Fold Probable chitinase 3.
Amino acid sequence: MNDTLQNTFVQNTVAFIKQYGFHGLDFDYIYPQCPQGSCHPGNAEKLGFSNLIVKLRTEFNKHQFYLTASVYSEPDKFYEPKVLNDNLDWLAIMAYDYYTSSDPTIGLVAPLFQYGRESSTSNVKSSIELWLKRGVAANKLLLGVPLYGVSFTLADNAKYTISSPAAGAGLEGKTTLYYNEICGLESEGWTVVSSENGKPIGGTYAYKDNLWVGYDDVVDVHAKGQFILEKQLQGYMVWEMSGDDFTGSCGLGKYPLLSALSKSVGQKTFSRKTCKKKQLVCKVVS
């Protein structure tokens, strides 16, 4: 994007914000070098985005507008973290989609920490610590939390633990496979697992026959809230609200994930009634 186009974009954006009474602009900028899934690593898009952010910040300061961005969990490939730190009010880290249904092995959508043979960087803890290491202030970071899961078809029904072989995508939801479509699986005969060999896995999964689903339940999102407090982050964002159990059909009240997350960042204890199902003390385990 050249300077002329960027300048036009900045002026049009300011006019649009003023016209509709908005408070600012949030960029959803996750795969700038990957149009249609074809990635071409390089610095052109990275530098172009930095330049645009600086121009927007300069103009937004005149109007006291917010400037924020939702960004990919890995900072180095697509961004200049220091530029973002110096010019954005906050960054929402999309700390999810570490595993997708196209992967050859099964894994959680957003594991809090590394477990077993998983990549040491494919987890929430590693992502946030890397953004911090790259110079982004903790009070500018929001932790992104998914309200959906990832599903696989097992290559072998007897091999259902983390990192086992997958044979492709599994259970489909009506749109995305949201938590409100997952939380009732146990009552349908699925086996629900939150630890292997006596060790927490940083998330939850459920399996039945050759189908497998990885997701965050109330205990998992509570742990992420505690992680936010531990790292002194600004807060959290979720993708997205309608994925929660908004009808309360799974027996944990309405919006159980959002409630657990909100409570966890506001207090360091959590109702054992909510944790009773898994008979766990809600805390971060790393």
Notes: Confidence is low (pLDDT under 50) at residues 268-286.
